[in-house]
Design brief:
alpha/beta, eight-stranded parallel β-barrel, 13 helices, FAD, EC 1.5.5.2
């Protein structure tokens, strides 16, 4: 049960300073976050797309405390869209955004986040790509889904994320699985109370399969966000049973995790999209990657010991 401990550490300024100061940290972080600027990330984008992969790109950073910071986050995404336009990638690279970056938690945050994210969605549509709204902790979801619904009025390709560990998600999935929808299903990476979320891995896995069945049976476009070999196999079988062609769903995995599997799925004709984050405010994102998968924590610990 290390996950909740790591997630708690992700909110600790003292632990943030300790980890950030460790000499080995940058080397390990680079496994998950391959750059801090658009210029640094462009070679990664080219490399992945040249290898037959697609991307969804995330500018990391969630600790927004002022409207000015939210506007800066918007502008960082607009810079990314401009660079993707120059690369002429089209749908090979799309965007993932957390509404907390756009001011969702501030006073008047729902309206502020919508105002900030809309220009990003517009700019993405103008170059032939789209945006997916990432799910955050359960207290933010009603706002996220409302913004998603509003954006889809003009940009129906706008996607959203649902989290299998939340009790509410099966109902959300049935509601969202309509024609033209794009829904990414993940297990969930926030510390949630037992009143709203499953706490045991086997419960979460069962919920994931139930929700994935609903998405595959629906009329939308499921995006399977998982590194779990068993769930990947189940997703392939559910797609076959639902009569879906290879371009009617996709797999999504994080940059730096199971890279060989990325290439294997792509070589079999599956759409395989790599969730690729970049930016300077990497700490929260990095700690959630450690919390999600014990192997990530072991990798970090071994690196700390070997370099200590």
């Amino acid at each position: 049960m290390l996950g909740p401990v790591i997630l708690a550490a992700s909110r600790s300024d003292r632990i943030r300073r300790l980890i950030s100061a460790a000499p080995v940290t940058r080397q390990v972080v680079d496994r998950f976050i391959p750059g801090e600027t658009v210029d640094e990330i462009v070679p990664i984008v080219r490399e992945l797309t040249d290898r037959g992969l697609e991307l969804t790109m995330d500018v990391v950073g969630e600790d927004i405390t002022t409207p000015g910071q939210a506007a800066a986050a918007r502008d960082a995404y607009l810079e990314l869209v401009d660079r993707l336009k120059q690369l002429e990638l089209g749908t090979r690279a799309e965007l993932s955004v957390k509404l907390s970056m756009f001011g969702q938690a501030l006073a008047g945050g729902h309206e502020l986040a919508l105002a900030n994210v809309r220009p990003v969605v517009e700019a993405a549509a103008a170059i032939g790509t789209t945006v997916t709204l990432d799910a955050e902790d359960h207290t933010t979801l009603d706002s996220m889904f409302a913004i998603h619904e509003e954006l889809r009025k003009d940009f129906p390709q706008t996607g959203c994320v649902i989290q299998a560990y939340l009790f509410r998600t099966e109902a959300d999935a049935r509601r969202l699985a309509g024609n033209g929808s794009r829904v990414r299903l993940v297990k969930g990476a926030y510390k949630e109370p037992a009143e709203v979320a499953y706490q045991q891995k086997h419960e979460i896995d069962k919920a994931y399969v139930r929700i994935l069945k609903a998405l595959m049976a629906g009329e939308g476009y499921p995006m399977i966000g998982s590194h779990d070999p068993r769930l990947i196999s189940i997703a392939q079988e559910l797609a076959r049973q639902s009569g879906r062609k290879l371009d009617e769903y996709e797999f999504q995995m994080l940059y730096g995790i199971r890279s060989d599997e990325h290439l294997r799925l792509a070589s079999e004709g599956h759409r395989m999209r790599v969730y690729t984050a970049y930016g300077t405010d990497w700490y929260g994102y990095f700690m959630r990657r450690l919390a999600e998968k014990p192997a990530n924590l072991r990798f970090f610990a071994r690196s700390m010991i070997s370099k200590g």
